[in-house]
Amino acid sequence: MIEFSFVKQMGKQLGWYQNNYAIFGLYKGYFFTVSKLNWLRDEQRRVSATLNYLDSTQEEQIKTILESHKKKIGYDKFTVEYGTVKVSFGKWRFKGAKAIYQLLDLLVTLFQKMDLAKTEKCPDCQNNQVTNYYSLGHTGAILCQTCFNEYEQGNLREKTVEKSHWVGLIGTFVFSLLGIVSWVILEVYLNVVSVLAALLILHLSEKGYTYAKGKTDHLKKYIIIGVSMFSILLASIITHIVLLLQQGVIFEQAIELLFSEPKLLRHMLGSALFGYFLLLFFGFAIWLPLIDGEEEVGLARRIK
């Protein structure tokens, strides 16, 4: 996942930890999480603080302060519930590390004035057990071993019913069909260079995998790229068959001509190869790093 270097640098300065989705750690005694921004998917960068129980009066007090500083710091929205304060910055208006530090200092000052307890115990059980920093998929936490074991067992139960790569593969191909249709329409009916639809096929393939809830691991990216490459070739073949049909050639002859006539075959493969060039350039150099990484569950990695 691509992320601006200031987030990692900020986490390194603070001695924080990270996973593929967030950096997290203690700031002046309170536990905070800052999400990494996936520009393909996320509209917001989220900053959250994990506290103990907050009553309704405390929640309203925090909301009042956050509302009064909304314009100055530049965040878009916030929520305060279940002992967690969440603040979101719009990705196009985000002011960088300065805004994050302003928000952290504001919250820490407020928490201290409210006499809210610092994170000195496990937030889940409140016992004085030794705590560690853990990655919990999309977020991070500071927990004791007992509470982490309970989370891990629940996560394993969810994994046993998780859908497979095959489900994601089917979803990827079904959604890519829309891109294939777009390719054909652009070239046959609008006389537009249709290889630009290669990028649409790539985008729809990723959406299909996500929609089908295929298994999220390192293979996800390569399934999406593989299906996209196959779909581009299929789109080029279908386009040339349709063009031959429009000239009065019957379907069986169109297929035979396409693969036996050197000029037609070169044109069809050339179209597909140009699509592959766009796919590989944008896919591997720009788009592929933006796809979500594998969800990590276990001891978190310290930022170095």
CATH topology of the largest domain: Yope Regulator, Chain: A
**Helix content range of the residues, please?**
40-55%
Sheet with most strands: 7 strands, antiparallel
Domain count: the total is 2
SSE string: HEEEEHHEEHEEHHHHHHEE
How do the strands of the widest beta sheet line up side by side?
5-6-4-3-2-1-10
Q: Compute the average pLDDT.
A: 81
Number of helices: 10
**Helix/strand/pairing class, anyone?**
alpha+beta
Question: Can you put this structure into words, describing what you see?
Answer:
The chain is α+β, with helices and mostly antiparallel strands. It has 2 domains: 156 residues, Yope Regulator, Chain: A; 126 residues, no CATH class. The chain has 10 helices and 10 strands. The strands form 2 sheets. A 7-stranded antiparallel beta sheet has the order 5-6-4-3-2-1-10. Strand 7 and strand 8 form a beta hairpin. Helix 6 runs parallel beside helix 8, helix 8 packs across helix 9 and helix 8 packs antiparallel against helix 10. The longest helix is centred in the last third of the chain and has 28 residues. The two termini are 17 Å apart. The model has no long low-confidence stretch (mean pLDDT 81).
Short structural summary:
By secondary structure, the chain is α+β, with helices and mostly antiparallel strands. 54% of the residues lie in helices and 17% in strands.
